[in-house]
Amino acid sequence: MANTTTRSPVSFGSLPAELRNEIYHYTLVEETPIQLPYAYENTPFHEPPLLATSAWIRAEAAPIYYGSNTFSAPSPPAAHFFLCKNTAETISLIKTFRPIDLVLPWSAHKRWTDALVWNLNRLVKKNLCPEAVEVPLRGEEGDLEWCRLADIEGLEVVWQGEGFWSVQWKDEEED
């Protein structure tokens, strides 16, 4: 006698949230930083098509995509272009953002870091968390290191109101 039991089809939505999150992680998280296009190329940044599948999938998957990947801009204008083209909600999901890849020795820091502070302050965008911003530094041994702003001695993040911040040098009198 043939088995007449029919199974109902399994849908993606019927999977446990933990399994869906694992699928999102495997399909959306890159091992290397996601390189943003140069601003002069006038090429828009494209999200993975999975995020456009439905509002429900976007709500579940966007925090994984933006929160688990590192986004790297080749220049401050490219970073600015990327930030201006995204919503404040999307920007708030970013956990690691590298707005510049110019690497100079930290020992020659005064001119470079003044330029860095100026560029970072130009990039201030509502909901971009300053803890997400990393900048490249070359140590005394010549090794490249990505450092969070909070880890750079002498710099401080100054809150300027709801969601807005800037970077400045600490007063030398505090030493």
UniProtKB/TrEMBL annotation:
<dbReference type="InterPro" id="IPR038883">
    <property type="entry name" value="AN11006-like"/>
</dbReference>
<protein>
    <submittedName>
        <fullName>Uncharacterized protein</fullName>
    </submittedName>
</protein>
